Amino acid sequence: MAMRSKSMSRVFSYILLGFLFLGLAGFGAINLGGSVQSIGSVGDTDISVDRYARALQNELRATEAQFGTQLSLQQAQAFGITDRVLSRVVVETALDSEAARIALSVDDAAVAKDLNDIQAFKSPDGTFSRENYRFALKNAGYTEAEFEENVRTESARTILQAAIIAGNTTSSTAVDTMMAYLTETRNLTLTTLTAADVPTAIPAPTQDELTAYYTDNIATYTQPERKQITYAILTPDMMLDDVELSDEALRAAYEARADEFNQPERRLVERLVFLDADQAAAKLAEITNGTTTFDALVADRGLTLADVDLGDVDATDLGAAGDGVFAAQMDAVVGPFDTDLGPALFRVNGILSADAVSFEDARDQLFDELATETARRTIDAKSTEIDDALAAGATLEDLEKEFGMRVDVILYHDGAEDDVMGYPNFRNIASAVQDGDFPTIEMLNDGGIFALRLDAVIPPAPMPMDEIADQLTQDWTSAQTLAALQTYADQVIANSETAGTPVILTDLKRNDVGQLATAAVLDAAFKLELGASRALTKDDSVVIVRV
Q1: Is this structure's pTM higher than 0.90?
Q2: Phi, psi of 397, deg, nearest 5
């Protein structure tokens, strides 16, 4: 039944798409006119243009709702949406074809039950409404016969899917083997050795040792190819000190956002509607005396808590029920109160206190936001003029003098660290710029602008030893310390000696990864025999693992 309910949700999604069907022609995904009626077939079952169109529109709307933007056909293709929908429709058609071949179907009673389960066809009291049913189908462009045949096909497909899944069984031997593998455990003793545990202090390196280490690890000390780039930048933050705003402007902004700064008490509320007040009162009495619960009443109506959830509301949103609901305590069920849908019981799931922010308290926030927006508009107004100046031959240095832009130089590479590298578009343009490219004005995601110029390409080169002497000494010492720890750990294991402070971990499964039981530790533990040990390096320490 769970599978059927899920499939019914998919069927009803087609109804909703009926409202949007004509929009697909504007989207341009499929030519709905002409003589083309099918985009292919599986066996003797055609895949109709309408079927693919509805499925594609459904996927597009879901994706657009997720990302909050309308997708073009090119974007849909780039995201793989068109191919994904086609694959799904082909699979569904294959199941439909096989169901038809073996004469698998459901009777009218099953179809009627599925229709009764569709929430959109129900009246406020939870019963099936033929008026709602006809209205929905009419607006979706379906006839009753056509839609009911779709429901019948969907139900048959679900039965076939269930049969296929049920037929794919796994032998008990395979299950037992897998369960034994997954539930196998180890008890471990972990001993972590650090630099403080090295038996003999590491001496300072000689120049020859540093040179040898530098040579052996030259790749570590080689700068990547870098671009020397000069850039001019102007951001809203750079202009804030020059922005002046009157108290009148700030107060106007405060008043315009009064709902934001002065929010009334709100409550998280659920509502269950009844046919009449007597029935609602009787059910409230059952809740009060403990013979039923609000959740049980919702379930008895074939609804979910999501169906009766009103979200967060204020008293005015609830009309005549507002005072009673807002006088109730947390988790209380109150009513019945009259609503537009009939008498209802309400449950309070949360209380959000009123929040009032005075103008004085909001002033700094308002100033920052308005000043930033003013600076953005100023920059936007200047951008065309600055771009024209560049086109007329102005240099980046000229922009600093004429327009107040800041000019700086960066050695750009993928790992470069600089504030300007925090702008994605700057990184993109800097990565793509080539010798001979002319600077143009580009936008930053905070409303700022920039232009850049490639001055030189610096090939990869080793960093001079004298410039990294301290880092080189530190790296050499760390490497020698780790090697000494590894030797010491091997000695401890070979001689069954005691070192460090052991930590005991018990009943560890293969996936019980934690701060001490790392993936490497668990991997070693499940390969070791009982009583065996192994030394593992971990950052600047060595861990002795004993089973």
Answers
A1: no
A2: -65, -35
Quick: pLDDT tens for 374-396: 899 999 999 999 999 999 999 99
Residue range 463-517, pLDDT digits in tens: 999 999 999 999 999 999 999 999 999 998 988 888 878 899 999 988 888 878 8
Judged against a pLDDT cut of 90, whether residue 222 lies above it is answered with: yes
- Furthest-apart CA atoms within the chain: distance in Å: 96
For the chain, domain boundaries? 2-167, 172-221+463-547, 226-242+361-462, 265-353
State the Cα–Cα distance between residues 523 and 186, nearest whole angstrom: 11
Q: d(Cα 467, Cα 343) in Å, to the nearest integer?
A: 81
d(CA 55, CA 70): 17
Identity at 124, one-letter amino acid code: P
Report the chain's C-alpha Rg in angstroms: 35
Q: Is 520 helix (H, G, I), strand (E, B) or coil?
A: helix
Q: At what angle do helices 396-403 and 359-391 cross, to 10 degrees?
A: 130
| Chosen CATH of 2-167 out of 1.10.4030.10, 3.90.105.10, 1.10.3720.10, 1.10.287.3610 | 1.10.4030.10
